Amino acid sequence: MTLPNLILAVLPDSQLSDAGSDLDLDDETLDAFFHRLEEHDIELQFSSGDWSGLAEDVEQRKDSYDLILTAETIYRPDSVPSLLQLLRAAAQVSVAKSEDIVSEEGGEIVSKNSNVHLNKNECLTLIAAKVIYFGVGGDLHAFEAKVTDAGGKLEVVKAWNAGVGRKVLQLRW
What is the pLDDT of residues 86-107, one digit of tens each? Predict the structure, then answer.
């Protein structure tokens, strides 16, 4: 499910095979996608499974991450501790190096997006979530408390107040 959505986000419409409302993952489309990633020196890694198992894998591999994105992953309160374990593990082995850097004054990296600030050697970790998840118990207030208890800090990067309400948060350890 993730790969087709990334292809739609990365490739201009002119490079997509026209198959009506469905995305045709033919060789030409895949080649264009992988060429675009290579052209911009982007490496993607996908994983599935329990967060805690992935955290152990990240800690063992010591991979470096410049950017960590997660969306709609806090809706189950019982999975939040293992998610935070993973986010901390990935952030601790990371080094920030971004073309979006405007300055590195005073040891802080300032992005073109003025809402995002990083310390040197810090990856950008963004979490997108609804303010409340009806019927499953998860909400941003409880998530923020668990982040604080784990030694992290959240800053709102963007908020939408209409409807259920959504936020994008930057996580820092």
Answer: 999 888 755 433 444 444 455 5
115-128 burial, b at 16+ Cβ within 10 Å, e below that, comes to: ebebeeebbbbbbb
Q: 119, 123, 51: which is closest to 92 by C-alpha?
A: 123
Strands 124-130 and 117-119: unpaired
Q: What is the pTM of this model?
A: 0.66
Contacts 24+ apart (CB under 8 A), 109-116: 113/157, 115/155, 115/157, 115/158, 115/170, 116/157, 116/170
| Exposure b/e, 138-155, CB count within 10 A at least 16 = b | bbbeebeeebeeeebebe
